[in-house]
Amino acid sequence: MLIGLTGGIGSGKSTVASLFNKYGVPVVDVDGIAKEVVQPGKEAWKKILECFGQDILHSDQTIDRKKLGRIIFEHAHKREKLNEITHPIIIKETMRVAERLQKEYSHVIVDIPLLFESKREALFNIIIVVYANKDIQLQRLMEREDISEKEALLKIQAQMNLEEKKKKADLVILNNQDLDATEKQVLEIIYQWKKGMDK
C-alpha cells in the first residue's frame, strides 16, 4: 500500500509523519527530496535560475529559499512556474524511493505537502489528511517561522483550503490537541492496517 500523507502548512503533518516512522512505517519525505533536487548544478536548479535569475542565490550558489519563497507567495503565476519546473522531477525521485521501500514494507507513506494542489491523488491507495483548526494553524506557523500574522495568512491562503482537503481524504487525523491524542490516532490506523493484513 502506498499512502499519501498531506495537510496544510502548520497542521502538524511532520509530527504525524515522525509518529508513523516511530512505529515502523517508513516515510518518504518529499520536502527532503525537494531540497535535494535543487542543489547547485542539478537539473531543477538550472531551470529555476533560468526563470528567476541569479538574485535568488546565496554566495555558495545554493538557492535562498526565503527570498524565493517571498517571490512565489506574492505572485501566483511565479509559484505556478516554479511548480511546473520542480514537481515532475520531485515526483519521479519520490516514486523511485517509494518503490524501493515497497519491496521491504507492506505500507509506505509519502509525506507530500501539495498532494492535491499538484493533482497526485492517483499515485496513492489511501490519502491521509492531517487537520488542524485555522487559528491553531496560524499560531503554529507564526511561532515556527517567527513571522507576522499577515505573512502566516498569506502562506496558508497560498494552499488549497484545509477544509477542502479534509473532504477529499480517505482518513483524517485531527491534530488540534496534544501529542498523545495524535499518537493514539496514528496507532489506531496502524492497528487497522495490520488487522486487514491478517485476514
What does this structure look like?
With 199 residues, the chain is α/β, with parallel strands linked by helices. 57% of the residues lie in helices and 12% in strands. A 5-stranded parallel β-sheet has the order 2-3-1-4-5, sandwiched between helices. Helix 3 packs antiparallel against helix 5 (76-102). The longest helix is centred in the middle third of the chain and has 27 residues, at 76-102. It is globular and about 55 Å long. The mean pLDDT is 92.
Explain briefly what this protein structure is.
With 199 residues, the chain is an alpha/beta fold. The chain contains 9 helices and 5 strands, in the order βαβααααββαααβα.
Secondary-structure element string: EHEHHHHEEHHHEH
Shape: globular
Structural class: alpha/beta
Which stretches of 5+ consecutive residues score pLDDT under 50? none
Q: Strand count, sense and closure of the main sheet?
A: 5 strands, parallel
Output the strand order for the largest sheet. Answer: 2-3-1-4-5
Number of helices: 9
Strand content: 5-15%
Radius of gyration: 17 Å
Helix content: 55-70%
Distance between the termini: 16 Å
Task: Give the averaged pLDDT, no decimals.
Answer: 92
- What's the total number of strands? 5
